[in-house]
Amino acid sequence: AAAVAATAAAAAAATAASLMLLAQPSGHRQRTSARPVSVSCETTPAATTGSVGGGVSLADGPVGLEMQAPWAALILWGYKTVETRLYPLPPELIGREIFIVESAEGKAGVSAVGDEVSAGSPDLRIVGTAVFSGFVRYPDRATWEADEYRHRVPSSSPYGWSDSKTIYGWELQNIRPLAKPIPVPRMRRAFRSFFALDMADGGANLETLKSHLGAPPQTNQGGSIPTINLSPFMHGTEEEQRQVVDAIAAQCEYIGFLRVTWDDFPTEIVAAA
After folding, report:
1. Is the pLDDT of residue 192 over 60?
2. Is 18 exposed, middle or buried (CB count within 10 Å of its CB: 0-12, 13-18, 19+)?
3. Residue 261 carries which DSSP code?
4. For the purposes of burial, counting CB atoms within 10 Å of the CB of 109, is it exposed (0-12), middle (13-18) or buried (19 or more)?
5. Pairing status of strand 63-68 against strand 194-197
6. What is the pLDDT of residues 66-75, one digit of tens each?
7. CB-hemisphere CA count at 13 Å for 142?
């Protein structure tokens, strides 16, 4: 039990650290009439190639987008629905499934990833996929701050608004977290943070979180939230522990609320509260 408590505390601390990015004055979370400016795809280059020798194209094959931690997780959790960049989304990537390549947290605006990346690079992993439906341009600070509830970048962040820069918001849809992060294949930089990925099957056989979890958990009669017993996680086999973890993941993914118990649950403490 002590080990589980320590693990839970560590997980809570990690989650709290990521959610600190969401802390903001209540006024910034209110939706206002200010809206980003829609941008036509014709404002971007018709074709996008990078500076890598040989001209790596994004037109065909699987494409990965490098994203530093913790931004990738915020997208996968559904908290962040707009990705912000200093350049428009290449038009050939609108509507295509893009692999999210998570890199370690580093210096804002500076990629520590080389133009050529070997398969299995220890500092990178694929954590999910996303589709971008389009992009917008933020005309001023007020519009940027009014949209903070979507892009989740606090004003104090080094990625925040700057009058000397043009910031674009890439609209996210169809987010698919993987059941488990996987090592990256060989990657070649094609344009800015976009990489061409050498994947034989195009990633078609990757297991997503929803395919791993299966059908949504059933609510109890009357629609109440199911109760998950944590005791097998504390005292059970590795397989029993995995089943508890999957049950928690499924309930959080599909229902959004969690109710738990365990064999020596201190009912008297709850009753006295």
Report:
1. yes
2. middle
3. E
4. exposed
5. antiparallel
6. 998 889 988 9
7. 4
Tokens 């958990």 locate to 217
CA separation for the pair 174, 75 (Å, rounded): 11
Does the predicted model carry a pTM greater than 0.70? no
DSSP letters spanning 168-215: EEEEEEEEEEEEEEE----EEEEETTEEEE--TTTTTTPPBHHHHH-S
Residue 206 CA to residue 197 CA, distance in Å, equals: 14
Hey, what are 134's tokens?
């389009």
Specify whether the CB–CB gap between 116 and 126 falls below 8 A: no
Cα–Cα distances (Å) from 205 to 14, 96, 208, in that order, read 30, 17, 9
In order of 41, 75, 186, 245, 251, the CA distances from 80 in angstroms are 23, 5, 28, 24, 21
